[in-house]
Design a protein that fits this description.
mainly beta; 5-stranded antiparallel sheet; 3-stranded antiparallel sheet; 1 helix; elongated
């Protein structure tokens, strides 16, 4: 009996081993571990200048053609202005005088170069003209002197004359160069030619 136990044990051990082999053959294969991915091929480091955008090409500079030299143009000479027309001169000036005290008004003729008395005033006309046709406004003007000289009294010396006005009087603007006197006033009316002498 003691000898049979080792045999039985040996048989049993052999059977277990056989059964294990069968199980090992029939057992499903365990899934294989996933294969590690192949390492990527080594690449060179990126060039930072290659990533910059390419600048557009510079435009060609514009070439402006030089203008052709201009011919020297001689300046036009302006036409010579026409000389002003001369004023017509006359022999007689017509003057109007006023006595401010008595309000007496008188108009008289004063021939050029001949002294004419009105009360205590003596008028001497040196020139009398009318405006030329090319002037803007028609006018009469006379250059004269006026002296204040009271009349001589018998038995008394003649008082000296005192000039109170000298210059141009204008018929259209009597206030432009007026006679200034406390008692008398006078202004130019117009100029006219002397009347022809009558034959007798």
């Amino acid at each position: 009996m003691r000898r049979a136990r080792p045999l039985i044990f040996g048989l049993g051990l052999a059977g277990l081993m056989a059964a294990g082999a069968v199980v090992a053959q029939t057992a499903p294969e365990s899934p294989a571990a996933p294969a590690e991915p192949a390492p990527a091929p080594a690449t060179a480091a990126p060039d930072p200048l290659a990533q910059l955008p390419t600048p557009p090409p510079e435009p060609a500079p514009e070439v402006t053609p030089e203008p052709a030299p201009r011919k020297a143009v001689e300046p036009e000479t302006p036409p010579e202005p026409k000389p002003p027309m001369k004023r017509a001169r006359y022999d007689v000036a017509i003057i109007q005088a006023l006595d401010k005290v008595s309000a007496e008004t008188i108009r008289f003729e004063a021939p050029v170069g001949q002294p004419i008395r009105y009360k205590s005033l003596v008028f001497t006309v040196r020139a009398c003209e009318l405006s030329a046709p090319d002037e803007r406004a028609p006018d009469a003007m006379a250059y004269l002197t006026v002296e204040s000289q009271p009349r001589a009294v018998a038995g008394r010396p003649t008082p000296p004359a005192r000039q109170i006005f000298r210059g141009w009087m204008y018929a259209a603007a009597p206030g432009l160069n007026p006679l200034e006197h406390p008692v008398y006033d006078a202004w130019l009316i117009t100029c006219r030619a002397a009347a022809p002498a009558r034959g007798g």
